[in-house]
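Chapter review: from sequence to fold.
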Amino acid sequence: QVTLVESGGGSVQAGGSLRLSCAASGYSVTGYCLGWFRQAPGKEREGIAYIRGGGTTTYADSMKARFTISKDNAKNTLYLQMDSLKPDDTAMYYCAVNLPGLGGNWNRPYFSPRCPGGYNYWGQGTQVTVSS
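The token string follows.
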């Protein structure tokens, strides 16, 4: 069974930093494309970044100067380092994975950037709240 569990969210003041983690189980993150996206109340989902199996990364233009996506294959974990946080970054943050041939649900609303082909599994999310 494929599961993704996010952690590391919380409340922080503007200008602060957080590192989100996404622990994967049921498959190996090695060789697959994974990403992060977020959704604020009343707003559409917004892609943040993704990392391909080979390690190539792609970011949303508005976040690439402050956010860094990475993964640790040995720990089977995806990360998102967030620096210089702003109140507008307040949202639920989700990790997701593209696992061809392993079931899941591909019928998700579109957002960008995301792994080519989209995602078929994602986690329950972790809340990030940034106060001014």
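Two observations follow directly from the output. The chain is about 0% helix and 45% strand. The mean pLDDT is 95.
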